[in-house]
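Quick check before the chapter quiz. The format below is the same one you will see on the exam, so make sure you can read both the input and the output lines.
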Amino acid sequence: MSVQQGSTAVFQIPEQGVTAGCSSVWCDLGALATEPGVVTAIALVGLLALLAFAHVRDAESACRRERRRVLDERDAFESFADRVAQIDTVSVARDATSTGVPVGGLRRIGSPGGGRRPGSDPDGGSVTLRRVMTAYHDTVLSLPHYRTDYDETAAESLAAELGPDAATALASDGGLSRGARSALVERSRRAADARDRLADAIGEEIGELGDREATLSSIDRRRRRLLGHLDGIRSGRGTDAAIDVWNRLTELERECDELAAERQRSLDDPPLTPESGVDGDRERPFYDYLYGPTDGPRYPVLAQIAEVADGIRADRERVGRRIAFDG
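Here is the expected output.
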């Protein structure tokens, strides 16, 4: 699969606690009164917009699309295994590997005319070879995304998915032996099982995305209720209420910090490990596989939390300026 590098979001968890020697809310608000912008009443217009959570929702859509494609590949390999299992075998008088797959070269598959549908091979080829290739074209290679994503010939695809010796068996002049058929069926089912595990892992990520979005939505609803309440109080009044809102916004920001820490822990413990078939050469390969090809951030949940936290901090600063002005 070709990978388009997305932008990487770096979310740093702020230090917890307050500045040493300052225990009152007025320590944080005092400096605001001297800012040049604090010369008139500070309105809260524009602070109540509902966040769209685009990063998380785009990530969920991407995961759902990828899971559907993975399941399609699983079904295709299962169908290919079923069809190959029904093909009659022929005796092959040649040395064989320990798996029963004939030894030979990839002379025909991948060469001009090789590995094509029946009728396109000028040499004809064995009947069993053509039936196997027809099955592969009708199942795995017929998937709309397969050729585009993997950019492989039939020979390369067989070698990558089922092993080079399995592709060699199809290229042998003697046709499909019983041992070769068994190997093809077994490895095709193994490829299907690997995709089934991958689909389950993607499903877990989809579930976590939904949970994180629900938590962020709750935080944002509380933010909007606080600001809506304060916006109804005329400037110059309700300083105590404003201070309470300021403190509650601080608590919401702390919740974002905790949510980010939870997500970072889950990133370090993915639902699928490199040993399960994902490229382990990259840091956090499961998430690189899911989000590397997208245009969004590499870590969409952390990017979304950062966006929410930034908004809360901006709201808190505005409320702080209002307190300083009213005071």
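If your answer matched, good. The two ends are 60 Å apart (CA to CA).
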